[in-house]
Amino acid sequence: MIIDCNANLGNWPFRRTQYNDPASLLERIGRVGIEQAWVTLLDAVMYKNVHAGNEPLAEMVADYGALMPVATINPMWPAWEKDIAQCAGPLGYRGVRVNPNYHGYTLADAVFGELLTAAGDMGMFVEVTVRMTDERHHHPLVMVPPLDIAPLPVAAAAHPDVAIVVANGKNNEAAALASSGDLGSNVYFEMSHIESVNGVKSTADTLGIDRMLFGTHAPYYYPEAAQLKVFTESELSEDEIAAIAHGNAERMMG
After folding, report:
1. 140-163 pLDDT, tens per residue?
2. Residue spans per domain, the chain
3. For the chain, what percentages of helix, strand and coil (3-state, to nearest 5) are there?
4. Measured distance CA(167)–CA(5) in Å, rounded
5. Taking the model in full, what pTM does it have?
């Protein structure tokens, strides 16, 4: 069984996406054996009011039990507390995604701690997105630097009951997290942007296998790339593969 902890629906303004509706996404990721996926709405990142994408996303996946929607929340937006409460309540979301580098704050800012507190009170996990795509592919007039995740260990330690997923992070960013000191057990790392031969294994050895989550960043990235990283090119044991493919995600979700 494989759970994709980082998939998407909808459109990205700077690249045409295919397989971006529920039925076609499930068919596409199903080709590599993925049975469940956590999905966000690509469009929402660039909305002025990102919450405008959360109700449509919930409606899109309502008839697809294999897709778990993840809300997009911007804590810099007025009354964002009402947005996250609506997501946790009537909309039934179990997790939120944040894009601080697109929305103008850092992980050291008080507002991020406030969001973690709100998510914890509602039993939701928080996905922190380092980048939406490789910086070399950005539109020249919309260059968004990767998120600095150096403050994350301190924030995570202050909110030990909140599961925090680092998404779209690269090898060096994982290594920097590991070298930062005592990294709380509530921090996870999704592997869609890990590169180099045996990169998933080396990152798992650095961060700890229990932190690693399978992710594709589909349909923006080909799901075969993630499948090859875990099942083919990395020297992982069967137990390690099972942990990354689904075990860690299941444990995180309780």
Report:
1. 888 899 999 999 999 999 999 999
2. 2-253
3. 45, 15, 40
4. 9
5. 0.96
